[in-house]
Design brief:
The structure is a homodimer of 210-residue chains.
Chain A lengths: L1 H27 L6 H8 L4 H7 L2 H24 L5 H18 L1 H9 L6 H30 L5 H22 L12 H14 L9
Helix pairs in contact in A: 1-2, 1-6, 4-5, 4-6, 4-7, 5-8, 5-9, 7-8
Chain B binds a DNA duplex (30 and 30 nucleotides) through helix 1 and helix 3.
Chain lengths: 210, 210
DNA sequence: AAGTTAATCAAACGTCTGTTTAATTTAGTG
DNA sequence: CACTAAATTAAACAGACGTTTGATTAACTT
């Protein structure tokens, strides 16, 4: 109890800053969010951000770490094992999409600030990407090569899978602006199933009259 | 000749600003690129940017227009007609990927600054997305529904196709940091073929011993 | 050659940026 | 209660931001 309240007190401002940063970075972008706005929204003093995180960049990398460590973990647990490749992929896609849906804001920050040439950020991301690379290489690409003589690089598969799974969440701000007269089932469950089916069997390979 | 030099002179600075902006926005991001840096790199006076384009935002929307108008045009020309759906899709993917490769910088600007809640930018993008929506709905989704009883929303198909085709180019800054001991054929032609095959037949639906 | 329009320029506008400092408050320990 | 360390604060730092202004130069028309 004492230890708890102690840590709560110590980390209260820190946590508040982190949570607020995730929301603001995702909605406005990292660069468009000023530290003053962030501090005011989080209800803390401006200097607290640099006090707890060192710099704005460090705050971003900490957010990236939270996201990527979970994403890598999902890939590791769902893709390892001796199951059929289709089973593993289905497991991975389903779980990853649910993770993306529950962490939209993380996803947006992690993916859309992906290209900036900031050495600090790129280097940080590539550390996580390297881990994903190895998992995908071992569990997907080697299996495709052995079982189907399909030589595909993890550098192709990994971005492709991540992109296709996250497309719904990244495009949503624009898609919401478009009126749609026909009604489609766009539930998350159906979305995950559809993406899985397309990745496994393609648009044309799916069973007719499904 | 007179007309040419006239227009050349008039548009020289303007063109220079536009070309420089595309490079800088793509490499550093829109927000990280200041107008002073842009003007200096382009070799023009700072005030010229607002003189020719009105504002920094307008400069961005003009860049987006150049990209999206071509992208919509590619979709329209490759997807319309009475050919088989697989033929149309193959045509579209091949051409779009080549277009992306030749306009990487445009692509990065158009896609990665996609989520920012700036009303001006989002509204502008949704205008183009609406055109893509109609083409994809008419030429892909309706055909899938009629021929295969597959009810898929254009709001799913369009972001998915765009994401999967652009994944290579968007992830490249991070992927380049990863050393790869095995050698894969990553030529553009092979990339386009692979993406086409995966979209049409999925990862598992492809012919063994291909 | 005079008049008109477009293009270029340096300079300043007010505001916001991330970061640091030093003083102050708060809380926990002996 | 005194001591120590962590947390919080207001204030200032130097610089960058997008945009505007008014003067000046260049080019084209009549």
């Amino acid at each position: 109890m004492k230890n708890n309240s102690e840590k709560n007190c110590r980390n209260n401002s820190r946590q508040q800053i982190l949570a607020t940063a995730i929301t603001l970075f995702a909605h406005q972008g990292f660069d468009k969010t000023g530290l003053r706005e962030l501090a005011k929204t989080a209800g803390v003093n401006l200097a607290m951000v640099n006090y707890f995180f060192g710099s704005k960049n460090k705050l971003l990398t900490e957010i990236l770490d939270i996201f990527f460590s979970q994403y890598v973990d999902i890939a590791r647990t769902t893709l390892s094992g001796d199951d059929e490749l289709s089973v593993k992929l289905e497991r991975f896609i389903l779980k990853a999409i649910k993770f993306f849906a529950e962490n939209r804001e993380f996803l947006i920050i992690a993916i859309t600030d992906l290209h900036h040439e900031d050495e600090e950020i790129i280097g940080h991301k590539s550390t996580w990407a390297r881990q994903m690379f190895k998992i995908v290489e071992l569990e997907i690409c080697h299996r495709l090569a052995e079982e189907r003589n399909l030589k595909l690089s993890p550098k192709l598969i990994m971005p492709m899978l991540t992109s296709i799974m996250s497309s719904r969440f990244l495009f949503s701000p624009v898609m919401e602006q478009i009126e749609d007269n026909e009604t489609y089932d766009m539930s998350l469950q159906r979305y995950a199933e559809t993406i899985t089916a397309i990745v496994l069997d393609g648009i044309l390979g799916q069973k007719v009259l499904r």
